[in-house]
Structure prediction request, 906 residues.
Amino acid sequence: MGAEELHLQPGEPAWYQLPVDEAVQRLRVDPRAGLGAEEVRRRREWFGPNVLREGKRRGPLRMLAAQFTDFMILILIAAAMISGLIGDLTDTIVILAIVVLNAAVGFIQEYRAERAVAALKLLAAPGARVVRDGEIHTLAAAALVPGDVVLLEAGNVVPADLRLTEAHVLKIDESTLTGESQAVEKQTRPLHEADLPLGDRLGMAYKGTVVTYGRARGVVVATGMQTELGKIAGLLHDEKDARTPLQKRLTRFGRIIAVAVLVLCGVMFGVGIMRGEPVMLMLLTAISLAVAAIPEALPAVVTVALALGARRMVRRNVLVRRLPAVETLGSVTYICSDKTGTLTENRMRAEEIYADGSLMKTAAPDRRGGEPWETLFHALALSNDARRAGDELIGDPTEAALYRAAEQAGYPKETLVRSAPRIGELPFDSERARMTTIHKMAASQTLPPPSAGEGKLDYISYTKGAPEKLLSLCRHQLTAQGMQAFDAGPVEEIVERMAADGLRVLAVAFRQWPEEPMNLEPETVERDLTFLGLVGLMDPPRAEAADAVALCVSAGITPVMITGDHPGTAGAIARRLHIVDKDEIVLTGQELARLSLEEFAEQVPRVRAYARVAPAQKIRIVQALQDRGEFVAMTGDGVNDAPALKRADIGIAMGKGGTDVAREASHMILLDDNFASIVAAVREGRRIFDNIRKFIKFIMTGNSGEILTLFLAPFLGLPIPLLPIHILWVNLVTDGLPGLALAVEPEERGIMHRPPRPPRESIFAHGMWQHIVWVGLLIAALCLLTQAWAIHAGTSHWQTMVFTVLTLAQMAHVLAVRSERDSLFTQGIFSNTPILGAVLLTFGLQLATIYVPFLNPIFRTQPLSLGELAFCLAMSSVVFFAVEVEKGFVRRGWLYNVASRSGSAR
Prediction:
């Protein structure tokens, strides 16, 4: 026998399809005695340890080196080298500091991402109870091999993938693998349907899941990377991080700038030489202009903007792990959200209660009196294994929901059990799909007997379970008028309506006894029952989720729900939140598996809810949307979500109920597991990108003004208007603090009532490049007019005046571009005090270069008269008023397409 004989071959039935005796025969093991020591040794040699292998990782040095390969970073390094060659050590140090800062941030982010698989390994069970050679041993989970017989009980983490051979009221929480919000009740019978989702394979227990109730015995069918958890680990390692929209846009931007600067500087150098200018002067001027034209402050401003945004998001319960994710949210066109805990409360609740022919909605409860309602609430409280520990409820989520429903109606379990103690029970099992508890009746509890002449009835049994299993056992029903014959028809209609609304329905009944029943068998106790009522349960939507979904739609973002839950439950929640319309379908994992790539690509834009989805299918959904040019945010909390979180443009993990694996694979973490927090983060992401655009508009307009001033002067017969020191000073002062202050600009009006930025949209869209060109020309014209007027007036201060107009014009410009549409007077000059402070500081520094004597020889400046300074102020202020006029045209829809970005969403 070899290792291949213990593996199922393609075309063979899956393990859950095989009967128990056939499965153990295939694995060559005695299910009572287990494997022998020699056989264990052989199988360990074949299969290796039961651990999750890590793929080959990049070392820290390689990760660090990769940070210096971005095109914009290479341009900055070149600019630093040029600055060093011309002796400008200040610019060299500043640029290199920016490069090192960005490299450090990128290295830390990548290093943390590489820990995702390591976190996945921690989910492996540390130990297991195993039967070998007829004896029970407690071993490390890593020592298990296929064929080992494993014993499970409540609280155990399943140590490997098992085919269950025995199951006694076994429930397993598989949410980390399937997303299913309810613990799954297991059984051992084979299931004959092929390709069932993991959550429906009731005869299997999977590595990394948790036993919540009961006990079982199973035989190991897969270990290590062959387990379902191992397959996800492989997907997670193979999945590559997608580049963010900002990274893509800045790369394109850097290339455009580099080419344009090289061409312009080459032309200017050539024209200067042809005019007879000194070669060294023209060389220094061209190099200085090249350094000035490269926006070296851009990475710093982006980093600061993202870091400040990340800090603001923490206050909105969003923790950012990777800074570019902050901006990515502003580009998101689809949010693929998990259901449980994100869109819902992650707590089962009794939504509807039916008794005595009437229905009560627990969302708007009313105090129901009368014997039927009182007895029903007694049943919910007493036939219940949940218990209170301080403010917490311990027990099965369904039991806890029934406990709370009775308590809120005024029937606390702690009070009732003192007068009606439990004296016997028939536990729940999947065959009967019901449970029964027997109690001594309280002295105050008086119920009419089903028929006359039965005498005093001192004991009562409460039975609850699936309606299809319980209603047929009822002979009577309790009404306000007393006992009546039971008519199942109307009750079954209520059951069907509740189920259609996505509720999990339980039926409740009782039976009275003259003496304590001694023969506790279902056939004896669970017959001739009296029907009490129905309870419809659901994990309800969060109160704020519907508003958040509506805000997504108004912002042009499509919300999609992807869950491992049952299609009926998924559809009900999606309809309540208006994610899907009444007639829209919920696509299941099985249906998705049957679709070809082309068929699914055609359907994916129309599907808004998915149910019973496998881990690999989540990646397929994200990939299909990305192939259509969408930017996708994916939320998740379980192991099953991790590969899709990493593949998505932005992965958002749960902070309260999520796993370490999901958090480490994500870009962001929701500290409150709330969908509404994602929408708040989207708003912040849009604000940040708007501010980055404003900075680029500001800095590139200033740079174009400098370039055009120097480029056009020779063609107009004017001498070179600025020296290299002037260019570098303007670049250092105007690009620094004012640019950083733009990062904290408040959000634009209507920011969540416009569509997302198209993923392939240029960063220069919506009139930006036109603005850069015409305002750059305006600044150049003002500088050259100042130069021509001063030379004509015979003043020797003309170069200082040009220098001053260029600097102050950019300060006027930064005040005007704080909004793309609104006037500064509408915004208020004090609505961004950092930018006001930066402008005043820059103005003071510029005056210092003019009027501080020891700075004059350094900057080659001369003091200006009051009239000359007033002239410079008047000329530079023209820029402010010209941009305000431009924004007035934009507000009226006469210019560009900026207005559409603040209008209705698509």
About this structure: DSSP finds 35 helices and 26 strands in the chain. The chain has a mean pLDDT of 83. The first strand starts at residue 127 and ends at 132. The chain has five domains: 3-54+120-238, 60-113, 297-314+680-901, 327-345+543-673, 352-536.
